[in-house]
User: Fold these one by one.
Assistant:
Number 1:
Amino acid sequence: MNHAVSLSGVTVGYEHNVVFSHLSLEIPVGQFAGIVGPTGCGKTTLLKTILGTQPVFSGDVRLVGYPVNKVPPGTIGYVPQLESVDWTFPVTVEQVILMGLYTNNRIWPWPTKEERERVHDLADKLGIHDCLHHHIINISGGQRQRAFLARALINNPKLLVLDEPTSGVDIKTQHDVLHLLGDINSEGITILLTTHDLNAVASHLPWVICFNNGVVAQGKPRDIFTNEILTKTYGGDIIIVEYQGHFLIANSTPLHLQEHN
């Protein structure tokens, strides 16, 4: 089977602190997968390893068949957490999208006519065409997410990686973003994202990876979201309710007790 992401026996950490060791993980081409787990469990380090920005102690990392350090430019699109972006930077939505071009080894610093047409096509597709000339500080959280998604898609990547794409936005925008990602995935782009929103994952994603310094379990949400697996992943008792085919997942520890822990 062809894999968009393949990690074999990978050990990663910072100086003498190992985050995960001997990790093996394969994500098939065309998959739409979400990584879930508690804060500090290594999700971000895993994404950095996949993106090639985190050195590995040992093991092999391959993306769409290439060693991670030899992946052709433009093969991977990346959308960072919105919280990590400086929204006061003087740039328009159109300029944000065009920034995605400079991950390639370009000869000319300015965009071609075809590339500008690509920007407008993406903006139309993602519903932000009317915002192209607006400063990013003056648009909504959902529009910002779509602008950075367009930036990641400008090079027609084979793999799209997103770090917490549903954080910092309202519930409707969360669902809109995940529906949009589902549409993009249906066009053949492999998508891998991290998220803390188990309910959104249960509703929208076909595949989930429970992670806590290693893979606890992976599979379809219906098979993976069990009290046993989620308790092992998060270290606390989890309540799971299914109603009319939908899941509701919550921590069973009352809030007033959590506040005193």
Number 2:
Amino acid sequence: MTIKNRLILSHVAVFIVPIMMTLLVIVVSGLGLIIFARNGNHVYIENAWEFQHAYEAVHHIIFDEDGIRKENSIGYWLIGLLAPEQNYILVSENEKIIYTYGNETLHGIGKSFFQTSDLNLKPEFTYTSTLENDFVHFEKNMLDDKIYQLYFVSERSLHDKDEALEDALEITIGFVVFSLAVFVLTTSWLLARFILNNILLPLKKLQVGAEKIRAGDLEVTLTHASDDEIKPVMETFNLMAQKLAKSLHESKLQEESRKELVASISHDLRTPLTTIKAYVEGLIDNVADTPEKKSRYLLVIKKKADELNNLIEQLFLFSKMSLGEKAIPFEKIDLKSLLEFFVSENLYVWQKSQANVDLQIQSNAQILGSFLLLERILSNIIGNSIKYRSEENFLCKINLKVENKVAILSVSDNGIGVPQNSLQRLTEPFYRTDKARSHTENGTGLGLSIALKAVEMMNGSLNIENVNPHGLKVVIQLPILKELNL
């Protein structure tokens, strides 16, 4: 149940419950008064004001909106509170007596007045008279084509005869008022506690959970059984805690990766710089005392400078990709045209390295991406395959196909492959397997990291797997804009 519904029910209960309980108290008190009266305790009329209230009450007890009340209704029991020796009540229907109560000897009081007057000729009238020692009320009503007459006479009584019942009435009225106040206060308190428990306890849980998070405990999980407005708050809190924990974990990994990256950059920059410095010092100290030696030293310096330039370019591209699509704008690209241009542009270099590259296009597609990034991806993947090849007859296959609105671009070679436990780490910056570390002068260790980052920028995925009997396969999946005819 929602808190809104609980509030509505509590407001309704605050109004209804006290009324119902008070009515129950009144009924019980009324029955108690009737029993009290039947034990000889009655109400005695002492003055005209009390008689007026008495005959008004008797009128409403006997008559209702539909006609005459039945004699066995609770109202007639209340008439029993009137002292029978002091009062006389008579009710007739079409001059036939249907109900009497009290002292019949009082019937003659005022009788001569009604016999001598012409009031009884009127269809309806009411008459009340205060005599010296008596009170008389007479009324005539026409209900359902029937004439009903109510005759009520009361003899004056001394005050001390009804003190017991008056005291009982005062106690009863006081008890009813007290009960009403108790019921209202108790109901309000219980319902307030009911509502507050359903609000304050969850808020307390949230406070405790927030304090735990502030203390660094991100594993906290809050539970809430009720399906109300608090439950989404608890679920959002748990999701927030989970995301904070995940974010903190990723931050730690990124910090470790950053430290490793800085260390790797320092190492990879120091190696060629150390070589350049040594050969420059050799030239300065005239160690290279022949033209042939000087030429060899200069070639080594140029090669190491090229390595530094290549590393800096890769680092620049790696940093640029961290800025996202804003730094590298995307455009619509025909994959078949891109692959054919890339292969034709690099074919001579590959042949010079005695590497055979086979392009197979099964189906064509258009994607949204970067020509520069796609060229860099292919260059890095194929370049790694050529650098770490194990066969003299090296073969690299490039395949393009489209399945389920996804372009699948795969690059596979017939090299030695990679140990299974190293496959998942190949895309980490500066990571090299043991076999690759013997060729540090040939690469920066950023090639596959850049490839993965570039593919993810184009909303794609990159997977690396070994192939049988030996070799490595890189599979790239990219979402297509539309499929093109070959």
Number 3:
Amino acid sequence: MQLFRFANPDFLYLLLLLPVMVILWILNDIRKKQALKRLGETELVDRLLPELSGIRSAFKFFLQFLVIAAVIIIIARPQFGSKLEEVKKQGVEVIIALDVSNSMLAQDIQPDRLTRAKQALTRLIDNLDNDKIGLIVFAGDAYTQIPITTDYVSAKMFLSAINPEMVPKQGTAIGAAIDLGMRSFSPGEGKSKTMIIITDGENHEDDPVAKASEAAAAGIVIHTIGIGSPDGVPVPVMRGGKIDYLKDVDGNTVITKLDEDILKRIAISAEGNYVRASSSNIGLDEIYGEIKKMKTQEMESTMYTEYNDQFQIFAVIALFLLFIDFIIMERKNRKLANIRLFKFRI
């Protein structure tokens, strides 16, 4: 299976101009029709301007619309990977463990804890080069969202789909996330494996500090990011289309608080750093700065190393449509009046 990509994907944003073109054409068409109405009755205007054709104008605009779309795709340079190779790179394996419990919907970090964490992780992935990344989500249990990989595009795609509903068991099992992370790294020893745990730290399920010590013994460094307020805030939920707050079995509003102590102990046990997040700075830049100082190891990965441009078909389509647009005039030709290509009978 070949890998498809655009060499210049930023040019695809130009496709947003196409709906604007349609709106402008419609507005211009309405203006022209109103101007013709001011000349007189429709039947009289048709007799005075027998060569006028609204269908031709619309058809020519449609052709020009398709040409512009094809040209935008051409300059974005669609490509297919043509050569699959095993390549070796120097890098670090990074596994992100992201808390997706309901408490991560609290809004003491704007717009909410989980959304802000996902935004920061997306930027982190954009900065990765030769490193491998894996993604784990956890609440009452831990699950692999994406195994260790250099496919950053897929990593961002899976990251964007993360939400609390994807984990059936609620809670915060940080220890389970560490245990799954330890088993998710590539086999082999060396100080080139690290985990980043992003959570509010309200652990209710296991002993994460003991698991962090096991990870440290296996040469895995764990960094923790505490996200939330130590003072505590309610957890918003949607009920009947309205915003309410999560309540316990006794009907009391659940208050979620950041537990910095346990996150600091995890980081210390696994020779990592603890950072407290804020709305303006999640803390991933500081953590990644520490990761870049780690000893890198040679890693093998399979990837496409050669790509072939596939814009030719779009160029042919654009030229063909331009030719059709050139030979079709906006006004009717009296010599070809009997050829009713643009007149339809209902």
